[in-house]
């Protein structure tokens, strides 16, 4: 396969690279099979070099004529003997060419340095000679140096001993080309040098420059800088040190090292000073046994080392080479001191059964948690609205089921872990970037990955794309663009298509979170590991792609798994049973996308995401295939994926073996939760969604779906389910502490706390009042301190809050913990929202259901409680947790239900003005509720005043704006005021 690099100028349709996970090198001890191969190679060489010419001499003799040629020869008949003589000449030429190949290969193998020259026209003959010579030398005296080759040469150790600071990734070398050859070295001399080098390395002496020679492939195995670093430096991630020491230095065959993943047998590599191992040798200045040619080649290579670059600190995050397609950890920029991390569950919490332990996988997935919470909130609001619109007389403030058990724990974990600001930063910055580039008529660059680090967003580009538009800034090198959170705030909400909807979180490295752009990978991303571990990664990827806030339209196809995940986003997620269905679907879509790109004149989907057609085309299609395809299916999938990056199609495929055709990037998930990609230079703490938590997440969504069999719906009765907490609304039910939340926040029955903690304690009480089922302490802490807080600060606040609320007459505290450790309020602590719900429930399902006078009084009292929106005067910058709540949707619907019920109560007695008054009062809190407007039209029509009805219709039409009136309202106006359209036109 052809490779793509960051400096590539090839057409935009390259074949994907082929990355291989480093494998352990075979042992150097020779086996019986090696001796058999060597013997057979010797026999083959003897037959070809000696046997063939001997047979020709004995059986055919001299094939050429004995005298000078004459014209009469052309007139002679061609006999069998003539034909045999011609063939004999051809065989002699072939033998001579093969003999030359053997000599060339033997010279290169015995010299130990350099790539063998090409014999003109040899082709397969030279390849055969190479294999036979290699097999023969495998057990010869030169075998000790033949396998590892010569280590690389260098000059001084200073400045070169430090390992490279960034973990970077290169697209791995493809399958071996014809260039690979069986290298060899002068065995005795180099073995002695290797022993001395090992001794120096073991003693820690500095100043002895070591070098290594790239070893040849053996079978399917090939050498790599990662493996060299793993063997001789103790850590494969230090391969960047070797790369930096040798980058762009001319090798014995005249080529240069420009990509860490493209190395050839016979190349010399300088090694860091602390390299160790028997395969290494020092600069052979004092090695007379080494041939003059070898010493000259090494000396020539040594003179090219003056330009080499120094490395950074091992394991740190720094810049990386710019010549490779890689994933690198961004440099950390100075940042303001961060708040302490959110409190984690302690061993004591788990031991005492307090319930402080929550699913850590979701707490550690802030973008996934924020996406799931946002999608869940939208689903719940949709359920509330659908249920309200489906009921004739309202739903009575329909209550969604309160999560219990595992679902409650998962919901709490989502609340603790969610980072909605991070999601907002991503969406704002990426859409703003797309808009800025469109204004400059510049295409979107291909982005391999994004890093969220220290509040900054780093984009890692596949190739340099010039200077980024402001407020973006250049990063650590030409392939990084970075924007700080404060600079991203300069963008306003722009009407731009999401440029990189395929970004998805994979995990964390140090303090940075990696998002891989699945649709940009030039081929398949494979994931190996245990089935359960892979499933957890796949579920996390699917859930985040389905619910993230930095994407628009997209299709996510789940193959062979994840059918239960479709409720998360039915418009995005689809499920296919097997690979056959996938191939049929993707073959058709690939053809369609190629044709559409060509017809539109675009090179890739990225150019199609800017300009006038950005909202209608080029939505990504991301395929998640949990089990590895086999045979022809794997080949077909690889062919489809070869052009996927250009077409906006991404493939993430699971594999048991780690070997998958067409895999551009290979990753592995370990049982310990580490996501490894050695040739990408990554070792992440993986983001996962384990099976139990996945089921609980899906349950949250299905419970909120009114169309689901178990979800709430309009057939639950006209008044809906009872609220989770009912208040005694009689005179005897006066609470000890009463908080007004609907409108301005006010507390009756408690003294205002002194000092700066008063706003914090008021906010904590409001959160508890809105969750009568209880609030997990970690949820409380994350709500009050979104940037994190220590456990002692959290616990101190809970103690102050308990002291402030006091105790009931029986001595029990008004703030207590239930058996699961969740904080709950006593029934003596009540809010007006509790009273509002209780009054409506009592009026429609309690005493008021059979007593008209009681119903009217309770509905009137309930409507009087509505003084404005929830917590109308809350301080700016606080109560951010309300964005995760649905009370902002529940309260208007509840007020609308009360207004509708009271209007019906008055209309039954013909009191249209009273009904209109109740409806207008409810419209103050629910101005967009279609039911209220329709009932207002009916009540106004009952007055038999067409002019007033016309004014109400005009007001309603003005409020509807460009959206126009809903179909039901138009139909009602046609019934009540047939000429309303003409009247409104005349008024206009």
What labels describe this entry?
11% strand; single chain; membrane; elongated; 4-stranded mixed β-sheet; 988 residues; alpha/beta; 14-stranded mixed β-sheet; 23 strands; 31 helices; disordered N terminus; 41% helix; transmembrane
How would you describe this protein?
The protein is an alpha/beta fold and 988 residues long. The chain has a 14-stranded mixed sheet, sandwiched between helices. It has a four-stranded mixed sheet with strand order 1-3-2-4. It is elongated. The protein starts with 31 loop residues before the first helix and ends with a helix.
Approximate strand percentage: 5-15%
Please report the total strand number as a whole number: 23
Q: Tell me the number of helical segments per DSSP (H or I, 4 or more residues long).
A: 31
Oligomeric state of the chains present here: single chain
Q: Could you give a short account of the major beta sheet?
A: 14 strands, mixed
Radius of gyration over alpha carbons?
Answer: 38 Å
Helix content: 40-55%
User: What shape does the CA trace take?
Assistant: elongated
